Amino acid sequence: MDIVIATRNKKKLKEIKRIMEEGDVSITNVFSLDDFPGCPDVQEDGKTFEENAVKKAVSVSKYTGIIALADDSGLEVDVLNGAPGVLSARYAGDSADDTANLKKLLENLENVPYKKRGARFACCLALAYQNTVKTFFGYVEGRIGIEPRGENGFGYDPIFCPEGYDRTFAQMSDEEKNALSHRGKALREFQKYLREKGTSL
After folding, report:
1. How far is the first Cα of the chain from the last one, in angstroms, to the nearest whole number?
2. CA 3 remoteness from chain centre
3. Which of 12, 66, 125, 136 is most buried (most C-beta within 10 Å)?
4. Domain boundaries, given as residue ranges, for the chain
């Protein structure tokens, strides 16, 4: 079975591949959008993670002719009414990087005490091939820290402390984070589906 991960984000791709390798699902080749340079970008204008993930997966599968797996995920902060949400990757603007997004979020939470900084990471994975579309979800509850801590991970990992921990995702090993993370949970649901379906998608 060949599959294309619908992303050009090298850090996200590396994380997805690592988690998939931990499972016992037989996948022959894992491609990314870098392997299909002509594949058009998909405008992520959905109102939910699911809408964006499905749109990407369907578009990429149609273009490549193989099974596509798309991820849309982000951070939802309680006191910000769920923001940044689907805008997580471009919270500080369309061309913003991780540093700018972190800075804006911390500024918006500047006067909010730690106990009131409840948040969650959410992930939707969409699998698309021919007429089949299937979605898988993962969530992890936690809080937003006062300042960035840790060098691992990417995105909001340096400021997100999962529930029950006083360390951020960026202070954890890859294995520890993947066991807890929203993306890890969604990918394990995806792997469970593949085990049940085999090659008869």
Report:
1. 10
2. 17
3. 125
4. 2-197
Length of the chain: 201
Q: What is the largest CA-CA distance in the chain?
A: 53
Q: What is the mean pLDDT of the chain?
A: 91
Annotation says 94 is catalytic: no
Helices (H), the chain: 10-22, 49-64, 98-108, 174-180, 182-197
Cα four-point dihedral sign 180, 71, 170, 168: negative
Query: Which of 24, 72, 78, 157 is flagged as catalytic?
Result: 72
Across residues 43-49, what is the average pLDDT?
Answer: 93
Q: Is the pLDDT of residue 24 over 80?
A: no
pLDDT for 21: 77
User: Could you tell me if 123 and 186 are in contact, meaning their C-beta atoms sit under 8 angstroms apart?
Assistant: yes
Say if residues 76 and 120 touch (Cβ distance below 8 Å): yes
- Domain 2-197 bears CATH identifier 3.40.50.10070: no
Q: Record the pTM.
A: 0.89
CA distance 7 to 118: 29
Instruction: Name residue 25's amino acid.
Output: V
Q: What gap in Å lies between CA 132 and CA 161, rounded to an integer? A: 36
